[in-house]
Amino acid sequence: MIEEFHLPVNAQMHEKSIVRSILALSPILGQVVSQGVEQHIFSTEYPLEAIQILLASGQVLFDSSMFAWTPAEMEQKVNGFIAAMEAVLGAEAGTFEPMKQILAAGNTIAPESRQKPESHQKPQPRSGRDFHSSYSRCHDAAFRHQLHV
After folding, report:
1. What is the pLDDT along the chain (149 residues), one digit of tens a residue?
2. Quick one: pLDDT at residue 3?
3. Do 86 and 97 form a contact (C-beta atoms < 8 A)?
4. What structural domains does the chain harbor?
5. E strand or H helix at 87, and its extent?
6. Contact in structure between 44 and 88 (CB atoms under 8 Å)
7. What is the pLDDT of residue 113?
8. Buried b (16+ CB within 10 A) or exposed e, 101-126
């Protein structure tokens, strides 16, 4: 069902799903950003709006049904998006470096540009692919809920 959701004939439904997910996630993530402002991790006067901008741009820019980036282009988009996240939220450079793995989930960034864990490093408990799968399941569940609302 989700594959059909991304077909051009269902573009309007896909667009509505993006809007609904932004509206559903932004209050929660806006609170996280507000907490980050209180803890001096972020510096923005507009936590809710900042997160809405990031959610909207990220959902469109990284939607494979809208763009067919090459691995090199995707790597540039990921790097640019991370820099934009840090700028919009007033975070220190490098704060969102771990997001590269999440944004690159699905092998969209060339393997040679991915950071490989050193043998002495502990493996991460969740990989970008795991996060992407979890996010996809949540997005799918939210979509199914929207159909029943």
Report:
1. 556 655 667 778 888 888 999 999 999 999 999 999 999 999 999 999 999 999 999 998 988 888 888 999 999 999 999 999 999 999 999 999 988 888 777 434 433 343 433 444 433 333 333 333 434 444 444 444 444 43
2. 62
3. no
4. 13-109+127-148 (1.10.357.10)
5. helix 71-89
6. yes
7. 40
8. bbbbbeebbeeeeeeeeeeeeeeeee
Six-digit token pair at 44?
């923005």
First-to-last alpha carbon distance for the chain, in angstroms, is 18
Tokens 């469109």 appear where? Answer: 60
| Per-residue model confidence (pLDDT) at position 12 | 83
Nearest to 60 by CA among 87, 33, 22, 102: 22
Identify the H or E element spanning 9.
Answer: none
Residue 79 CA neighbour count, 13 Å, CB half: 9
Residues 6+ apart with CB under 8 A from 7: none
Q: Which two tokens stand for residue 92?
A: 């220190």
- Pick the closest to residue 56 from 91, 29, 94 (CA basis): 29
Longest dimension (CA), the chain: 50
